[in-house]
Amino acid sequence: TQLLEQSPQFLSIQEGENLTVYCNSSSVFSSLQWYRQEPGEGPVLLVTVVTGGEVKKLKRLTFQFGDARKDSSLHITAAQPGDTGLYLCAGETDSWGKLQFGAGTQVVVTP
Amino acid sequence: NAGVTQTPKFQVLKTGQSMTLQCAQDMNHNSMYWYRQDPGMGLRLIYYSASEGTTDKGEVPNGYNVSRLNKREFSLRLESAAPSQTSVYFCASSVVLYTEAFFGQGTRLTVV
Fold first, then answer.
1. Does the first or last residue of chain A, that is N or C, have fewer Cβ atoms within 10 Å of its Cβ?
2. Are B4 and A42 in contact (CB under 8 A)?
3. What residues of A are in the B interface, CB distance below 8 Å?
4. Is the pLDDT of residue A97 over 80?
5. What pLDDT is attached to residue B93?
6. B42 chain-A contacts, CB cut-off 8 A
7. What pLDDT sits at residue B6?
């Protein structure tokens, strides 16, 4: 059983479309990180959110942290082929005592 | 900047063989980690080292041992490889425990 659920598992869209991926848990996060992993590479950190209700933007990527700090979303506007990759969220809670990764959402953006 | 360097990138082992995966970071980070990544399972923590001189078990430590050789280096040893250990292994480091992690490129290990 995953402590941290990501949805959807797979997303295939055309260039120019928008997409949203989700990260949820029944636990309250102390902090939550989003990573992107490209084939054959290690994950690379995109953002860290720590405050409930926080919104962070990174060019065409918008990250939201839920008010209750139990969920987060990543929204990509006008997706490009370069956005293709596995998007992972990772959260830390007081009870877990460690950083827990979700299984990831595989995003494929075709030209 | 090299960041986190793992060796080897690929390895095939026979069941029962042993090997050591090497990891080094040049960012003066205190904490280092070993993860394995399997399809549909995400990244699972095998062992971690909060700081030089300490190591602790993660979520899936059975069949593995680690050594924090110095602040830069953290190795993972498989004493008697099993097919269930076929996976992609990632080393990572961070300034302090569970903050922004920097990952190596991974080692793809196949045990036959």
1. N
2. yes
3. 2, 4, 9, 31, 33, 40-45, 48, 88, 90, 92, 98-99, 101-104
4. no
5. 96
6. 2, 4, 88, 101-104
7. 97
For A22, A102, B26, B42, B52, the CA distances from A1, given in Å and listed in that order, are: 17, 11, 36, 12, 32
Query: In A1-111, where does DSSP find H-type helix?
Result: none
Residue A102 C-alpha, separation from nearest chain B C-alpha, in angstroms: 6
Q: Greater confidence, B36 or A96?
A: B36
Search chain A and give the residue with CA nearest B90.
A42
CA-closest candidate to residue A57, choices A42, A47, A67: A47
Residue B27 to residue B103: CA distance in whole angstroms: 12
Confidence of residue B99 (pLDDT cuts 50, 70, 90): confident
Q: Which residues of A touch B88 (CB under 8 A)?
A: none
How far apart are alpha carbons A14 and A79 in whole angstroms?
8
Residues with Cβ < 8 Å from B47, sequence gap 6 or more? B33, B34, B55, B56, B57, B58, B61, B64, B65, B66, B76
**How many Å apart are CA B53 and CA A23, to the nearest integer?**
35
Q: Which residue of B has its CA nearest to A91?
A: B98
d(Cα A75, Cα B78) in Å, to the nearest integer? Answer: 40
Q: Over 70: is that where the pLDDT of A1 sits?
A: no
Cβ–Cβ of A43/B43 closer than 8 Å?
Answer: yes
- The token duo for A12 is 């295939």
Residue type, A97: G
Chain A residues in contact with B27 (beta carbon < 8 A): none
